[in-house]
Amino acid sequence: MKFIKIICAIFMIVISLNMTACSNNSEKVTYKDGYPNLRGKHLVVYVASRDEVGRVILELFKEKTGCTYEYMRMPTQEAVARVKAEKEYPKADIFMGGTCDAHDLIKEEKLSEKYTSKNYDSIQSEYKDKQGYWTGFEVEPLSIAVNKDRWNQEFKCKGLAIPETYEDLLNPLYKGEIVIPDPNTSGTAYTMIASLVQSMGEEKAEKLLRGIKANVGRITINGYTPAQKVATGEYLIAINFLGDQLLVKNSGFNIETSVPKNGGWNIDAISKIKDGPNGNVGKFFIDFCTSKEIGDTLTNISKGMSTREDIKETEGINFSDLDIYRDYDFSKASNDRDKLMKMWNNLN
Questions:
Q1: Whether the Cβ atoms of residue 79 and residue 48 lie closer than 8 Å to each other
Q2: What residues contact residue 87 under an 8 Å CB cut-off, 6+ apart?
Q3: Same domain, 129 and 144
Q4: pLDDT, tens digit, for every residue of 168-225?
Q5: Containing structural domain, residue 259
Q6: What is the pLDDT of residue 27?
Q7: Is 24 domain-assigned?
Q8: What is the CA radius of gyration of the chain?
Q9: Does 75 share its domain with 161?
Q10: What was the pLDDT predicted at 12?
Q11: Residues of the signal sequence (predicted)?
């Protein structure tokens, strides 16, 4: 009997060692031409960046690594809500894009996983989480877009200058002519609210936002649509990110863009969702998204400005030269969200 017990124990040890070896082998990844071979692997991504950004990057990742993928495009707050709702059984590996305060929020709620990318040192220090929970891949300032054709036909004769500041948007002549995203769903509009409160103080910002909201003719679900609505002339003025506006401008639409002095800005970040369904595959995707190759690609497909040290300009614009609110605190914006949304929703 004792001999049988010994034999059984040895057998269990051998099985355990074999399982460990198999597990270790399954995590081994070979490289070819600098890219990991991920054939047979899969990745699920929640994309809060524009659809074409997520699609192009994921297609390139598949082409270079062999990794298959699926993604869902959604506004920032919907992505956050999904990650929170799926806490016990995560369905996605990566949260990509959206405003940085959202990535801070899932970090604080322990829904993301710390990962220091191999490109971490190439990302400028102010554009990455110091603890390694998220990494920025592009930055964008908020901007005011004006349909130049409509302006010349309808408003230039009134002796007005093209709006360049938020205060300019208070003119009653613009009532019903402004389109903005909904801060309840879009990180773009929330960035505007939070940055104004931080830069001006809550009382002054609330007064300014009430005046702007009174002139708003339409509120959209996502942050990109306002630029499109102004490009086609449906509305005169849009507030959203500069990259969105440059994309439609470069498509042949006659719009003028102005980054307001002391305005807000955003870091488009990427986070690995804690306990995602496909293990460490997400880490390779984060490395890919923060590479110089993708940084160069983004300047063409999104018109955002890369966070990498070795990529300085987009469309001749250097982010460091813009007169924006540099002290914008993303963590504070994340913590203040409920309070500021209550303030905005009660404005009338």
A1: yes
A2: 111
A3: no
A4: 999 999 999 999 999 999 999 999 999 999 999 999 999 999 999 999 999 999 999 9
A5: 140-265+335-345
A6: 60
A7: no
A8: 24
A9: no
A10: 44
A11: 1-21
Three-point CA angle 23, 24, 28, nearest 5°: 120
Residue pair 69/62 in contact (Cβ under 8 Å)? The answer is yes
Q: What average pLDDT does range 306-316 have in this prediction?
A: 83
Q: Are residues 187 and 79 in the same domain?
A: no
Give the CATH number for residue 281.
3.40.190.10
Q: How far apart are the first and last CA of the chain?
A: 84
Q: Which helix (H) or strand (E) holds 336?
A: none
**Run of H or E residues at 118:** none
Task: Name residues whose C-beta falls within 8 Å of residue 187's C-beta, 6 or more positions apart in sequence.
Answer: 48, 75, 76, 77, 98, 99, 101, 102, 223, 266
Candidates 43, 99, 87, 41; CA nearest to 69 is 43
Judge if 80 and 225 occupy the same domain: no
Q: Provide CB contacts within 8 A for 64, sequence distance 6+.
A: 35, 288
What would the pLDDT profile of 6-52 be if each residue is shown by its tens digit?
444 444 443 443 433 333 334 688 998 899 999 999 999 999 988 88
CB of 213 closer than 8 Å to CB of 170: no
Contact 305, 315 (CB under 8 A): no
| AA letter at 187 | G
